[in-house]
Amino acid sequence: MPLKDTYILLGSAGSGKSTQAELLKSSLHLAHIDIGSELRAVASQDTLLGHEVNEIINVKHSFVPDEVVFAVLLDAIHFVPETVGLLIDGIPRRESQIEKVLEVLEQAHRSLNKVIFIDVPEAVSVERISKRYACTVCKRNYILGKNLIDSETPCRYCSGHIVQRMDDTEEGVRTRHHIFQKDTLPVINYFEKTGQLLHINGDQETYKVFQNILKYVRPE
Ligand SMILES: [Zn+2]
User: Fold this and answer.
1) Residue 160: helix, strand or coil by DSSP?
2) 100-157 pLDDT, tens per residue?
3) N or C: which end of the chain has fewer CB within 10 A?
4) Separation of 127 CA from ligand 1 center, angstroms?
5) 217 alpha-carbon distance from chain centroid
6) Residue 86, strand partner residues
7) What spacing in Å lies between the alpha carbon of 152 and ligand 1's midpoint?
8) Whole-prediction pTM
9) Nearest CA among 66, 86, 95 for reference residue 182
10) Cis omega (within 30 of 0) on the bond before 2?
11) Separation of 156 CA from ligand 1 center, angstroms?
């Protein structure tokens, strides 16, 4: 049986990447490996590695070393049957990770079809993310101007206090956007040269972004 498609999904905070990942996953029946969630899952395990990763992510707020990231990625990929398509989300984030990610895919007998890059201007990132709020008690998400009138309003489900996420302030978003640009642009350029890049304008309605992606990734 031929191996199923493998895609990589990249996009900065506020690009709508998570929404598109959900849409792709359900409409193309892909297994979705979000490296961030995988690492957070490892961090919650009561193992030696779990404690180590937890310390890095939740205490030091630092980057997990590449060798751990790749071990976790390989593990997650091996868990997906070879007959199931795969959507890898959030890696490679840096140029130095490209070769290793391709190696991991090769070890899993998968070849990369497309790298989907959802591109949004910094102003759009800021605009979208600075409107994100969450309840401190039940953790439900709110969007200012959509289902939240002002930040003084209590949570409609539990009357909890509603706040902005700490790094979701305008300055925090700008910083994250700059880091993403600096780190990930070389990755984007690399896959542009190999002809595998699918550059998507993320500054459109969700369904339009999704239709643009589907034009190129819909299986035959
Ligand atoms: Zn609440």
Assistant:
1) coil
2) 999 999 988 898 999 999 999 999 988 888 888 999 999 888 888 888 988 889 999 9
3) C
4) 24
5) 18
6) 6, 31
7) 13
8) 0.85
9) 95
10) no
11) 7
Ligand 1: centre distance to CA 102 (Å): 42
Q: CA distances (Å), 46 to each of 42, 50, 54, 205, in order?
A: 9, 6, 10, 42
Domain 6-120+196-217 grouped into CATH 3.30.2000.10:
no
- Residue 164 Cα, ligand 1 centroid: separation in angstroms? 13
Q: How far is the CA of 53 from the centre of ligand 1 (A)?
A: 29
H helices of the chain, where?
17-28, 35-43, 48-54, 66-78, 98-107, 122-129, 170-193, 206-217
- DSSP state, 56? I
Tokens found for residue 146? 């959509």
Give the SS3 label for residue 83: coil
- The ranges assigned to domains in the chain are 6-120+196-217
How many angstroms is it from 128 CA to the middle of ligand 1?
21
Rg (CA), the chain: 18
Q: How far is the CA of 131 from the centre of ligand 1 (A)?
A: 17
Q: Judge contact between 9 and 16, C-beta under 8 A.
A: no
Structure tokens at 52: 């180590």
Q: How far is the CA of 142 from the centre of ligand 1 (A)?
A: 10
Centre of ligand 1 to C-alpha 150, Å, is 15
